[in-house]
Amino acid sequence: MTTLELCYISSGIFFIVGLISGIWKYIGIIQSEKAEAREYINILHRTSLMYSFATLLLAKFVELNPYSERVKFYSVLVMVTFFSFAQITYLLHALLKDTDNQFLKPYKLGKIHLPPFMIHLSMILLIIGEIGGFSILFWGYIEKVLF
């Protein structure tokens, strides 16, 4: 699989998840007395659509970046992995109906209490992976244009 194929396949998967979770959101709205879907259904829906377009942006920077296919592939793979990790977390919270704020202490996933280091470590890795992955793509383009 090429890096561009990874971007486009990821974009399509995120978009279809956004569309399907939109149906789930609508069902939640019509079944709610307040006409509101649960928080993590909203978050899943919104972020799926955002990630679908984010991966299209990544595809453009892959095209503009002069680095090797391997460097670009792993940069994108890291970002898509963390986008997916976030989506799975939102999906689990939506299905489990366990919280409307995953960062509220005590941290939990269903009935399981998670140790704080696990939450903080996963967020630190996500931040490094997403910003690092994009920085490689963006810096390659900057380097190409300016130097």
List keywords for this structure.
single chain, 147 residues, mainly alpha, two-stranded antiparallel sheet, 4 helices, globular
What are the SSEs and their pairings?
Blueprint: H1 3-31, H2 39-64, H3 69-96, E1 108-109, E2 112-113, H4 116-146
Helix pairs in contact: 1-2, 1-3, 2-3, 2-4, 3-4
Q: How would you describe this protein?
A:
By secondary structure, the protein is mostly helical. The chain has one domain. 78% of the residues lie in helices and 3% in strands. It contains 4 helices and 2 strands, in the order αααββα. The protein has helices at residues 3-31, 39-64, 69-96, 116-146; strands at 108-109, 112-113. The chain has a two-stranded antiparallel sheet. A hairpin with a 2-residue loop joins strand 1 and strand 2 (112-113). Helix 2 packs parallel to helix 4 and helix 3 (69-96) packs antiparallel against helix 4 (116-146). The longest helix has 31 residues, at 116-146. The relative contact order is 0.14. The mean pLDDT is 98.
The tally of helices reads: 4
In terms of per-residue confidence, which ranges show pLDDT below 50 for 5 or more consecutive residues?
none
Straight-line distance between termini? 30 Å
Give the structural class: mainly alpha
Based on Cα principal axes, name the global outline. Answer: globular
Summarize the amount of helix as a percent range: over 70%
CA gyration radius, whole angstroms: 18 Å
Mean pLDDT across every amino acid position: 98
Main sheet makeup: 2 strands, antiparallel
Number of strands: 2
Number of domains: 1
SSE string, helix = H, strand = E? HHHEEH
